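Progress narrative, work stream C.
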Amino acid sequence: MAEAADFPGTSPSPARRWLLRTGALVAGAPLLAGLFQLSATPAAQAAPKASLAEATGSNTVEVSLDSLSPSVPTDGDTVTVSGTVTNKGKQTVTDAHVGLRVAPAAVTGRSSIDEAAKRSGFEQYADGPEVGGKYVEKFSALASGVAQPFTISVPVKELDLGSDGVYQLGVSLSGRTAAAQYDQVLGIQRTFLPWQPEESDAKTKTTYLWPLISHTHLTAETGPGEQQTPVFLNEDLAKEISAGGRLEQMLTLGKDLDVTWVIDPDLLASVVAMTDGYQVRSGGTTVAGRNQAVAKEWLAQLETAVQGEEVIALPFADPDLAALAHNGKTITGSLSRLKDATDVASDTVQNILRVEPETDFAWPVNGAVDPSIVKVAISAGADKVIARSDSLQESSSLSYTPSAARPIGGGTTAVVADARLSTAFQGDMTKAESSTLAVQRFLAQSLTTELQNSKQRSIVIAPQRMPSASQAQTMAQALTALQGGNWSQPQELSAAAAAKPDPSANTKIPSASAYPSSLRKQALPKSAFEEIQTTQADLDRFKVILSDQSRVVTPFGRTMDREMSTSWRGRSMDAAVYRNGVQTYLNSLTEQVRLIEKSETKLSGRSATIPVTVQNNLVQGVDNLTLRLTSNAPTRLKIDDDDFAEKSVDISGGHSESVKFTTNAEANGPVTVVAQLYTADGEKYGDEVRFTVNVTEITATVMLVIAGGVLLLVLAGFRMYTQRKRAAARLETEGAPTDHEASESARRDGDANTEAVSVVHTAEEKPPVKSGADEPEHPSDPAPDTAPESADPSGTGERVDR
């Protein structure tokens, strides 16, 4: 972006200031000439963190500036700096002291700040003379490799600052070594000191976006039962919202700042899911989550913090607009899913935080835009796109930073965030020095922007989406100083978007070829959107059979939004694993409604009933299903007098149902039968089940054999009946039989009944011959010794059957 060469309306430093510094230069010229030449050598320009063998000249001692207070001084303040000095050389440094130096003139533009920040090594003219006097800290000796802390406090008036502007402030260590027995600068660290003691007449309106965005944490899976207990990938979200965590810091720091909150509704939904019972994946199983209290506390604090503040709601799960534009827009359903994610965003934020958010802003990753990205954003309902100035660049002829709002056609506004200010805190802010330098450089860029032009402008700052805890702390420190300064005032994002555009600002969206290749490589590939489409198609087939679709459609719909999240950038493997897990879980649910396998079925006769069992292991009932049974050989076996038959299926949760079909056999032999479930719209549901029906038709020969057997039984019964009738008549004529004879007759009758076909004895039974008229007959009398009808003479005492 073009910078101003000079500040309009600035005045030169006071004459006394120039005389003092010029005199110091002249007086010290003979001594410093050699040092200046030394500082100009390649060794002097080396990185300050050199090894012991390389540490020479003004890079011999490493000076670390860990704090500077106040960050924005005014008249009457005392500037205090603290840090450490570490001797990186091999020789001990003696007669050392640390002092402050102020550059003789303010920097002349935003590019000058960038260039000054890159300088290393000491340069007498550029770094200016040391304040000196009592405003130094002395060290008798600095041994090699040893670090020593220091603190210096200097009244602002001793710094001899001139007109409003940004001045380079150097913290230098001077001393002697055995090889150079004279005072020399052996180490220096520079930062920037914004100076504007009086309030500006046209303060810059500054909008700072404060993003509450996280990675994807929730899965599509829920626990069994009616409660649908949510399942998390891990407990990382609990760590982020716990004390000291990244999101806890963003909330705690942000509530005391004038910022515009930018919130991903998925983060809110995920924290809400933690407030009740939830499960966490652990190995191959799940365990109960234990951070309900932490989630409730964080949500309560956030709800309080955003009351009365502007809240921007991103589409649910923060979809990657650039990936959609470049790789997903040709995949059916991708853009409609983005629109749905935008529509649900407002309700989610309102229901949880009780504030009405703005939902017409789109935020492509890093603010990089091209025509296709803008079109995708518009298709989702956004009419304001948050871009960045390193994407929508200004022409070199513009000598100042214009306001953020740019009309780009079709009623759409590009809100262009300042790239330098937006990227100021992307580095490692865990070190005190890194944080201090970042804060001062941010403030310097902000003040320089304000001094470029006498007109009031609107500047937007869009930092990284997910700042670390240390980055958040540094951002808060810089914002606190900025909002306490005299050149800036806070403004909401919607006001910045509605501000009057600068007619000289660039309004042309860069071409697709200008999109950074590094960002393009990180985007979700086309295959990812194809997998999402497959999941959606399977979900559409599944939901139509459910009695309560919301139990499945809502969690899976939100999960597919998460599959398109910007947070997957640079994590392609994790994204693929997540998508596969979603599809696998959906498959496991659809398989809970299935046909039970059948073994071979034998069919004897011309007609029979065949049962087919449908099982529903879901919690809820299913309907709108049709079971079709088809005969592959209808000439031999018909189903309900046709090639196939269909019956509706309606099964409550956790039950099975047998559906019965009537079959008719036309010929003998095996026939393959296919059972298949269909949805109401005729789509196949689940796997088909094939089984064999073996038909054995009853023939005429078999019927004759059976008829003959029946006839024989009838004839045998008739003969038995006739025989008994004759025996009864004879007994009536000859007298009653003895007990033994009656018993024997009953036995013979029973044997005749048992046999299907038997030979009936026809010999007549005669009454026994008694040996005497008065001799009684007993059942226990001995059997006759002589066979019936024997011609041999009878012995004494023997009985004879005749």
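Work stream C, second folded protein:
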Amino acid sequence: MNPIFSVGIQSLWDELRHMPAGGVWWISTDRNEDAISLVNQTIAAQERDAKVAVIAMGENPKKIFSLNDECGPDKVRLFSMPDGQDGLYFLPRDIQCSIDPHHYLVVLKCANNAWQNISTEKLRLWLEKINKWVRDQNCTLLVVSPGSNNDKQFSFLMSEYRSLFGLASIRHQADSHLYDIAFWCNEKGVSARQQLSLKHIDDEWHLAQQEETVVQPRNDEKRILSHVAVLEGAPALSEHWSLFDTNEALFNEARNTQAATIVFSLTQNNQIESIARQIHTLRRQRGSVLKIVVRENTTSLRATDERLLLGCGANMVIPWNAPLSRCLTLLESIQGQQFNRHVPEDITTLLSMTQPMKLRGYQKWDTFCDAVSNMMSNTLLPADGKGVMVALRPVPGIRIEQALTLCRPNRTGDIMTIGDNRLVLFLSFCRINDLDTALNHIFPLPTGDIFSNRMIWFEDNLISAEIVQMKQLAPEQWGKPLLVASDTKPVLNATHDGHVWRRVPEPLRLLSDAEERASS
């Protein structure tokens, strides 16, 4: 008969505690001391005749692990392994050199932040390999992984249910701990999306209160957690509203919700990435029923930023010019809504794919074509909304190289090139109805005075087709920008900024009438 081992949390019911032989379980903690305590209590929770092996990564196991005289197994095999990738990869081989792991509970206590420099693809392969080894040896592996920022890893592991039988985390709070179970599968069935409060008393883990052995109901649909700035100084509108001074405090409270409405406040452009990461964590870990909204309190969002927030899992982004009454109506409109768009497990994919072009200004003809082609093939960007491409021919008397000197794009992602007597511009995420406005910002003179005609492409298939034609242009027909003579300093008082000479203004003092008469 296969043995069944237990997690060292007292009063926890069997559906969330048992770990039968033949599976891999993973528990993350945000503090190293919590991981050590959990391992010690897990050792003490086993039967007297249980076979237990404990591996300490980067630490001396004799200094951090101990046997309880009153409970736990009679003997525990202790091992140490170096803090590095090689130790993890050779873990199965090294264990079998010392013991026969059949019917063993093997506890791997990782070093603090041990996985932060290991890619998700390598972690996936390691899990597949270790899962196969555990099934072949008919043993149980519990991985206890401490780390200061486990959200990214935890979001990834939620999709690895084929290799993991259970995934949970212990997060430290002011005077308690939150035990967050993503999923837990054993002989009692499958449990998922459970959150329990734990108390750490005398180095022992206890449930803060006795819980019913049922799935936690989504009884917080009416709750609205909001940044205080969203209400523009108004008090909480009802007993269902909770206001927070910072987005970080709002995020920490939102991690305890199931189906509430979360409203972040965006006031500066540099907040976008942090809010995006918080939204991604909530959507990946708390599920599709949570309603997540971002209200732009001051104008700071570009179209790319809005797409990033929506791609990370936000239900809605409310623009800065929407009055408070309109904002409340929009919040009411998403009640009962379920999020059904795909959110990638790694937010770096979203960050790179929703902001794909880091180029700006003049590019060689082939570089321009490749950059626009890559953007058109980006499946995460909206169809027919990736930008506008426009080809401009100068009026007679103006060379195309001269027209290029007047083209001064300011936004990252706006690029241009010259060839075949044309100036070709690609304005990323520009809408067709905003084209004239964009061109007026790019050129210091009216475009009608510089160019005789223009051609415009704004649909993906038309832009892609034109890029195919442009790639067939021979290199000798590619244009080159005018050379800037930077080796000769002009006679005027000027400085060179690395690109061009700029004249230094000279202060002039105007004489008063009396001074002018005196000088004459």
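The longest helix spans residues 120-137. No further action is required on this item.
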